[in-house]
Design goal:
The chain is α/β, with parallel strands linked by helices. It has 20 helices and 31 strands. The longest helix has 25 residues. The structure holds a DNA duplex (12 and 12 nucleotides). Belongs to the helicase family. PriA subfamily.
DNA sequence: AGCACGCCGACT
DNA sequence: GTCGGCGTGCTC
């Protein structure tokens, strides 16, 4: 009897495929988690071995032999695989695709694990003897030379990119140095985490207490919610915990919500931790990603700093997982395999028996609730002496006030005062472009997207109308396409418009606008932030990009231009999100002597949640919002799933979901159904979208219904409708 | 997801 | 007559 292996193939199907084991491969090589190349249809694919099975799931005659085992040893440990299987079940996503998502592209495509070796750059003796003046006409090479000169250990290839304008430039410079015999690549392969780590930090009692409590738990599962405002020193706690983990010969996985937050955290980690560190995010080349991933997998990299997708990177010696800005929604993947890196990280810590440290100034209500239930340990860092004092909030009632391009007189006056005192101002508006609509004053025509149920956004400087929901882009019409009048007016305010107004109102003052449009270039964000730090800029204006990570000690006045947009929304999480945004933006400001002031422009100054936030701070707001969630049985008190459908016709999408509901309805009284209903924006990019909402007080019941419905869907698939299932959705678009 | 197979419309 | 549209079924 021949050996049969069960293989997860990365296709959108909820089943595995069985193969005859490749000829001549001993049984002990057929370990769960190894990659195999398998014939699939008329192509060769990379699949993942799940198990050796006794009885195949189909007739033996149909079995084809697998091509080859690609790994001498599995790159995924049993725990890794267990986590991935859990994730596939929990998110109801096909196992093959889930496993695939754990691998960098090179490994998905079947390349050998030994090809992408982590390498580092060192100076040769000849190079070390050089004079910096040698590089008079090669600034990048010179910079690289100076960095290498000041280092004892090799500079990992993965860190080259951050050194100058573009990764390409530094890479070229490195190659030149090597060509001339002044530097060489060395293999970081056999380097283990050195036991010697950098000097300990000076910690205050609260930080020390937090570190002690976490480290008392090393080697055990535990979730610690590290709560502290900006500047309270969460990063030092992370660093010290990581130091202790490294000292034990274990590894740390550090997750941040966005690429833009990696450089500064990386710098701080490198200063203090003398263990190889690698970053892992979508800004790297595939070769770099594979190197970082494999380095961590092999245990050569002590600290892996990455975004969402790094949550599945295998750890040879699991030590700790750090989840920075735990509340951030970017941890939720919004397409394909829609997992929450936060929730996966918690499950991973549990399976690996290691602690997880989740930090935030504004924790998610889910995490606060878990503290209340005794599942998480709350550790609070009070604001440090010498750090920013809590800001003062003031509401600017803008009812019946004329705004000047989104700015009230009160705000403008406060800005003048602040700037006169030599301080900086930060303005927050979560809407990019010049104006969110272009209307005809004559007939009321509005510029709409042809393919979406949305207005086109005016980008005045580039004279373009753009749809923010699809790729549509148009030039500006000279006159109204409907009535021919030449009186088209921008309606509403975006950052570009405020930018223009500021330059008019404060001609002497430097303005930096930070949004997706103004920071397109590769290092433009960094450059702009530098200008702000150096005081060349008086007014800082931006979207939520501003709310993340960066601190601006020179800012003492924060203006939030449109609070209401967030508090009035159909999304039940909108209030939570807005409160987090307000507190996060407010936290960017202020310094020792000078507390910051936060001005909130609103037409609803009496909104209870806003009032609660201003009176009792984020914890008070969270308590109130949790009470509301509880009475409405919304998360974290109830569980949800959102079934989305899109197709060429709305009726098709609606009917598909209606069928799902009909077939399952009534079978489980514990699950409530809402819909199907058209999505908040029913038409996007020419496709019609509908959604079906499932809620239940009991998670298992919800999952049983989903499993059941998916099984039926496998039997009678509907091919004209593209659908996706979102477990624990955070956005309801 | 791909890919082949098959059945209907407008083209060299 | 056939080129190609995409609905349907299948992949061990």
């Amino acid at each position: 009897m021949e050996t049969v292996v069960r293989v997860a193939v990365p296709i959108p199907a909820y089943r595995c495929f069985d193969y005859l084991a490749p000829a001549g491969v001993p049984l002990e090589s057929l370990l769960p988690g190894v990659r195999l190349s398998v014939p699939f249809g008329n192509r060769i694919r990379v699949g993942y071995l799940i198990a050796v099975v006794e009885t195949p799931g189909c007739e033996v005659e149909r079995l084809r032999p697998a091509g080859a085992v690609l790994d001498a040893e599995p790159l995924l440990s049993e725990t890794d695989l267990k986590l991935l299987r859990w994730a596939a079940r929990y998110y109801h996503h096909p196992l093959g695709e889930v496993i695939q998502s754990a691998f960098p592209v090179h490994l998905r495509e079947g390349r050998g694990a030994e090809l992408a070796r982590p390498s580092g750059l060192v100076l040769t003796p000849a190079g070390a003897a050089l004079d910096p003046a040698t590089f008079r006409r090669a600034p990048v090479q010179r910079r690289l030379f100076e960095i290498l000169h000041g280092r004892e250990r090799p500079l990992p290839a993965s860190r080259l990119a951050e050194l100058a304008g573009s990764g390409r430039t530094v890479r070229d410079a490195a190659r030149r140095l090597v060509e001339r015999g002044w530097a060489e690549w060395v293999d970081l392969q056999d380097r283990r985490i050195p036991a010697v780590v950098g000097s300990p930090l000076q910690l205050n009692p609260a930080q020390l207490g937090a570190v002690d409590e976490i480290s008392a738990n090393l080697g055990r599962y535990g979730v610690f919610l590290l709560e502290g405002v900006t500047g309270s020193g969460k990063t030092e706690v992370y660093i010290e915990v990581i130091r202790r983990v490294i000292t034990r010969g274990e590894q740390a996985l550090v997750l941040v919500p966005e690429i833009s937050l990696t450089p500064q955290l990386e710098r701080r980690l490198c200063e203090r931790i003398e263990a190889p560190l690698a970053v892992f995010h979508s800004g790297l080349s595939e070769t770099e990603r594979a190197a970082a991933w494999l380095g961590f997998q092999k245990g050569e990299v002590g600290v892996l700093l990455g975004t969402r997708s790094a949550v599945f990177a295998p750890m040879r010696w699991p030590g700790v997982i750090i989840l920075d800005e735990e509340h951030d929604r970017s941890f939720k993947q919004q397409e394909g395999f829609r997992f929450s890196a936060r929730d996966v990280a918690v499950m991973r810590a549990r399976m690996a028996d290691i602690p997880l440290v989740a930090g935030s100034a504004t924790p998610s209500l889910e995490s606060i609730r878990n503290v209340q239930r005794g599942r998480y340990v709350r550790l609070v860092l009070p604001a440090r002496a010498g750090a920013a004092v809590a800001p003062r909030y003031r509401v600017l009632d803008i009812r019946a006030r004329r705004l000047q391009d989104g700015l009230s007189e009160g705000l403008i006056a406060a800005m003048h005062d602040t700037l006169a005192a030599g301080d900086q101002v930060l303005l927050f508006l979560n809407r990019r472009g010049f104006a969110p609509a272009l209307v005809c004053h004559g007939c009321g025509w509005v510029a709409r997207c042809r393919r979406c149920d949305a207005n086109l956004v005016l980008h005045a400087r580039e004279s373009r109308l753009r749809c923010h929901h699809c790729a549509a882009e148009h030039g500006l019409p000279g006159c109204c396409p409907s009535c021919g009048q030449e009186d088209l007016r921008p309606l509403g305010v975006g950052t570009e418009r405020v930018d223009e107004a500021l330059r008019r109102l404060f001609p002497e003052v430097g303005v930096a606008r930070i949004d997706r449009d103004s920071t397109r270039g590769r290092r433009s964000l960094e450059r702009m932030l530098e200008r702000v730090q150096q005081g060349e800029v008086g007014i800082l204006l931006g979207t939520q990009m501003l709310a993340k990570g960066h601190h601006f000690p020179g800012v003492t006045l924060v203006g939030i231009l449109d609070v209401d947009a967030g508090f009035y929304s159909t999304d039940f999480r909108a209030a939570e999100h807005t409160a987090q945004l307000i507190v996060q933006v407010a936290g960017r400001a202020g310094r020792g002597e000078k507390p910051g002031t936060v001005l909130l422009q609103t037409r609803h100054p009496d909104h209870p949640l806003l009032q609660r936030l201003l009176r009792d701070g984020y914890p008070g707001f969270a308590a109130a919002e949790l009470a509301e969630r509880e009475s409405a049985c919304l998360p974290p008190f109830g569980y949800q799933a959102l079934w989305r459908a899109e197709s060429k016709e709305l009726a098709l999408s609606m009917d598909f979901l209606a069928r799902l509901r009909e077939e399952a309805d009534g079978k489980n009284g514990a699950v409530h159904w809402l819909g199907p209903a058209p999505a908040p924006m029913p038409r996007q990019a020419g496709r019609y979208r509908a959604q079906l909402w499932l809620k239940s007080a009991r998670r298992e019941e919800l999952h049983a219904v989903l499993t059941d419905a998916l099984a039926r869907l496998q039997e009678t698939p509907e091919r004209r409708v593209r659908w996706s299932l979102d477990v624990d959705p955070v956005d309801f678009y």
